[in-house]
Design a protein that fits this description.
Aspartate Aminotransferase, domain 2; Aspartate Aminotransferase, domain 1; 4-stranded mixed beta sheet; single chain; 7-stranded mixed beta sheet; alpha/beta; globular; 14 helices; 2 domains
């Protein structure tokens, strides 16, 4: 007889079952086939606007070809950590390539983005140090702060006055103070005020760590990131990024000075004790860099699509948080309504994702939409048509109430 299991998350499981019972459960949808901008679910095509595949490179011929060649040469996995038997020459070549691309002295690749933040931040922030981080930072940063031996203090989202107060209060109490923030915030598409942040860091002698998971590949010159967008690459001490968005794979990277990266290399437990990135994943990232650096049109197409959708949502009357990134959130307000709208979109051939508390504040449920360089205007026009119908049918407000 199986014993019943009760945990602190039991209520979450019950809510999920309730949504399933009412055909409103929007998570763990099984994708049967994918052609980049189109996915197939339950045998029906849907336009994908819920992906982080900003440059649309997951199906690029050069990228797929290089991934296949890597498997043919190195096999499917490394079966060990970089420290021991899992250090391939292509890992080191990719790190050199990424460091040059990002504009830092050295880069270090991890098996996932989550592991990058967990390992790097917990290694950097020692018992006599503290982290100051934005209240809307990614969950991986929150978890990293739990692993770090130092203290953690939050400042109000993108509020530089609050950050300066935290800096003034803490710089003399700790050996190191590290400002930690997303470059592009994943739910709302907000861009960190990185230029002001770096100026404050310089004023108070603090370090800057940027989680640019949604920025690298997109922001700045040829996607060199939020730090390049603001022209502060030389003022960012640690720049983290992931390969599961613009780089069509899985893994993560942290870059900075030679000295800092050597320190992380020998002190980040999630780097030391995890199997290294699979050969195909490494080759995919490297191939994506080839495309990014050689294709002059890819970012032009991306930003054209982003502007088309921003303008379209505004004309319909949606509130989209004034986003200026490929992430365009559509304000809904009510949690249940966000699920209903998501179901309506799916029934009409649109794949989008709802975001509810605690990922956003209570009463600010939204539909997170995001766009690729490979979307065509016909697809985007259909998205706007369906959203326009949804706005009337579900009486979606045009502003935050």
């Amino acid at each position: 007889m199986t014993r019943p299991f009760v945990g602190v998350g039991t209520r979450t499981v019950e809510k999920a079952q309730m949504l399933k019972d009412n055909n409103l459960y929007p998570f763990f949808r099984s994708i049967e086939d994918s052609e980049g901008t189109i996915v197939q679910i339950d045998g029906k095509d849907q336009i994908m606007i819920g992906s982080n595949n900003y440059l649309g490179l997951t199906h690029h011929p050069h990228v797929k070809e290089q991934a296949i060649k890597a498997i043919e040469k190195y096999g499917t996995g490394c079966t060990g950590s970089r420290f021991l038997n899992g250090n391939l020459n292509i890992h080191e070549e990719l790190e050199e390539k990424l460091a040059k691309y990002l504009g830092h002295e050295k880069a270090l690749v991890f098996s996932t983005g989550m592991q990058t933040n967990l390992g790097a931040l917990s290694a950097i922030c020692g018992p006599r140090d503290c982290m100051l981080f934005d209240s809307e930072n990614h969950a991986s940063i929150i978890d990293a702060s739990r692993l770090a031996l130092g203290a953690t203090f939050k400042y109000k989202h993108n509020n530089m006055e609050d950050l300066e107060e935290q800096l003034a209060s803490n710089v003399n109490r700790f050996q190191k103070v590290i400002i930690v923030a997303d470059g592009v915030f994943s739910m709302t598409g907000d861009i960190a005020k990185l230029d002001e942040m770096c100026a404050l860091a310089e004023k108070y002698g603090a370090y800057v760590y940027v989680d640019d998971a949604h920025g690298i590949g997109v922001m700045g010159d040829r996607g060199r990131g939020t730090m390049d967008h603001f022209g502060v690459t030389d003022k960012v001490d640690f720049n983290m990024g992931t390969f599961s968005k613009s780089f069509a794979s899985i893994g993560g990277v942290v870059s900075g000075s030679d000295e800092a990266m050597e320190y992380v290399k020998y002190n980040a437990r999630s780097f030391m004790f995890s199997a290294s990135m699979a050969p195909a994943a490494v080759a995919t990232v490297s191939a994506c860099l080839d495309v990014i650096l050689s294709d002059d049109t890819i970012h032009t197409k991306l930003w054209k699509n982003v502007e088309f959708m921003r303008k379209g949502f505004k004309e319909i009357g949606f509130y989209t948080y004034d986003s200026h990134t490929p992430i365009i959130p559509v304000f809904i307000g009510d949690d249940l309504k966000s699920m209903q709208v998501t179901r309506f979109l799916a029934d009409n051939g649109i794949f989008a994702t709802p975001v509810i508390p605690p990922a956003v504040p209570k009463g600010e449920a939204l539909i997170r939409t995001s766009y690729m360089a490979t979307h065509n205007e016909e697809e985007l026009s259909k998205v706007l048509e369906v959203f326009a119908v949804a706005k009337k049918e579900f009486e979606i407000p045009s502003c935050m109430q």
